[in-house]
Amino acid sequence: MYFLNTFKYVFQSLALQKSRSFLTMLGIIIGVAAVISIMAVGASAQNLLLAQVSAMGTNLIGILPGAADDMGPPAALFGIEITTLKYEDALALEELPHVAAVSPYISGRGTMTYFNKIDDFDYLGVGAQYIDVEDTAVDSGRFFKQDEIDSLARVVVLGSAVKQELFGEDNPIDKRIKINQIGFKVIGVMEQRGVVAFQNQDELVFIPVRTAQKLLLGIDHLAFIRAKVDQTANLDSAMNRVKETLRFRHHIKDSSKDDFSVRNTAQALDILRSITQALGAFLVAVAAISLLVGGIGIMNIMFVVVNERTREIGLRKALGAKRRSIMIQFLIESAIMTLIGGAIGIILGILIALAISIGVNYFGYDWQFIITPTSIIVSTLMAISVGLIFGLWPANRASKLRPIEALRHE
């Protein structure tokens, strides 16, 4: 009965000061909403990252220019151009045991012209074994061959979205387009593939890698190489042979002097998982700062409440109220404000995470809406802790007031 009466009294007190109570809870609402939404976005982003990498296959080896430690990304991923990886390196890797297919990669952006239709698209210079490495296929026409790469043939294969943009429902095979004012013959259209590795494959134009290097970019290096291994069990063996071959070709005798990095899909998944987990923990810690600010706001308001009710506290203590009951009353008031703010914050955080999910999916990514029980529990416990910790000092101060001094308070 005592606690029931205390709760009724607290709710009546909060109802009389609606605006002040809401502003007091606002910091908690924002803090909890930030924690919920950031944890949800972190979980969804990690799921998307891992799904995108997994979609590339579990038996792929990636070779990038630039050295890196076993768990760190190579410098090339930070936008630093490194020119140590060559087309001839990719050809050498095709001869290795357990390597089923190899494709070099180089990318750029160009203006595509077909009669009066002009648009900018990304193009990808790749090898003849690209469709085997990527497990994709040509929907109509054909893919370019090795002799076309060697002869710098001006042929292209269009992504399905590019074909639709330039040709509509017309058949593009054997038609001619211009890329940066250089004429190319369309020999194929890729099947629809969607977003893989954070790039919409349907919006790409595929060009023989040597043609892209010499005619469009004026370079002789590669962005990276991908090699497909015949069986997942042979990944480690194939990776060792790749490293040995590249060291021999680059005249490297000490492995610590490698000017390349070799990764497989499993390693990439581990790196991404560790990075996203660390980033998620950091963002939650940043979001929790707003809870701290909200707690300080509650403490300040509770000091004001104690000051306003000084005479009331004095009267209650004069009538026999114990120090513990006074302290519990103010702690309950602080906790209730925090819990109400936390509940509103949880709902708001879920709505924010849902809005982000809808927005990202609109752009073609498979972004799953993930709200984990952990995020609800963590944010609730944090809110309760903030309410109790920051309400303790004002409650303790109220409980220590002397009845006579409190009754004299104006």
How would you portray this structure in words?
With 410 residues, this protein is α+β, with helices and mostly antiparallel strands. It has 2 domains: 189 residues, no CATH class; 127 residues, no CATH class. Helix content is 55%, strand content 18%. It is built from 13 helices and 12 strands. The strands form 2 sheets. A 6-stranded mixed barrel has the order 2-3-10-5-7-6. A two-stranded antiparallel sheet has the order 8-9. A hairpin with a 2-residue loop joins strand 6 and strand 7. Helix 2 crosses helix 11, helix 9 runs antiparallel to helix 11 and helix 9 runs parallel beside helix 12. The radius of gyration is 32 Å and the shape is elongated. The model has no long low-confidence stretch (mean pLDDT 80).
Which value, in Å, is the CA radius of gyration?
A: 32 Å
Report how far apart the termini are.
32 Å
Shape: elongated
Low-confidence stretches: none
Class from secondary-structure proportions: alpha+beta
The number of helical elements comes to 13
Q: Which strand-content bin applies to the residues?
A: 15-25%
Helix content: 55-70%
The string of secondary-structure elements, in order, is: HHEHEEHEHEHEEEEEHEHEHHHHH
How would you concisely characterize the structure shown here?
The chain is an alpha+beta fold and 410 residues long.
